[in-house]
Amino acid sequence: MNLKLIFLAALLASSISALSADALDEKQFQKLMKEVGDTTKRVKPGIESKDADQLNKDAARLAEIYKQTVPFWQHRKVDDAAKWSQESAAAASALALAAKAKDWDKATQHFRELGKNCKACHDAHREKLEDGSSRIK
Q1: 136 pairs with which residues across the strands?
Q2: pLDDT at residue number 134
Q3: Helix, strand, or coil here: 41?
């Protein structure tokens, strides 16, 4: 019985430490968010010019970034932001598929979903500072 309890405790401890190891620190998170901003600036022009290859590449990168931000929010126990990160990853993946299929209406729809999630998260969890920079609330 004690051996089972020790095994369970060790398993739980390793699971918790693995979750913490997956979570980004604030500096890493902000670096990824800056990359999101830079990448997102290319998406609308990519849709307008119907540049499927570049749009697919940018959307796939956005999906990858948003997947990385989920543990950051989960570690902080910020459920709405974790949900928006998951939804953004899904929308970016769908955007990449729409670009591959050259379905520009769907690409526009998924880009709007991304924008909606970005705005919601920024409104709830981003604070503008006097110097023009931002920080997480």
Answers
A1: 126
A2: 87
A3: helix
